[in-house]
Write a structure and sequence with these properties.
Elements: E1 8-14, E2 16-22, E3 28-34, E4 38-41, E5 46-50, E6 55-59
Antiparallel strand pairs: 1-4, 1-6, 2-3, 2-5
Length: 87
């Protein structure tokens, strides 16, 4: 996923969290984060967050589609592709 108009901020509250990013040449790099780590994905950068149970705090503007501005391929049924839910 990538967001054209906004950065994405991740703070790991517990466990581990991984973010893979792809540069303009197509090279993919993964960053593994632990409790207390922060990572910001700059706008326009393709990325794939994943975790096997880590707890995170993520900031993005209201109205941001959870699967990015340019999703490619089918979105798995277990992924909630939405603009958010009322609390």
């Amino acid at each position: 996923m990538a967001y054209e108009y906004t950065d994405e901020f991740f703070l790991v509250l517990d466990g581990h969290f991984e973010v893979s990013v792809r540069d303009l040449t197509g090279l993919e790099t993964s960053v593994v984060l632990g409790k207390g780590d922060v990572f910001v994905v700059p706008k326009g950068v393709e990325h794939k967050p994943s975790s096997l149970g880590g707890d995170i705090l993520m900031f993005e503007p209201t109205g941001t589609l959870t699967t990015g501005d340019r999703p490619t391929g089918p979105i798995p049924e277990h992924v909630d592709s939405t603009f958010g839910h009322k609390l």
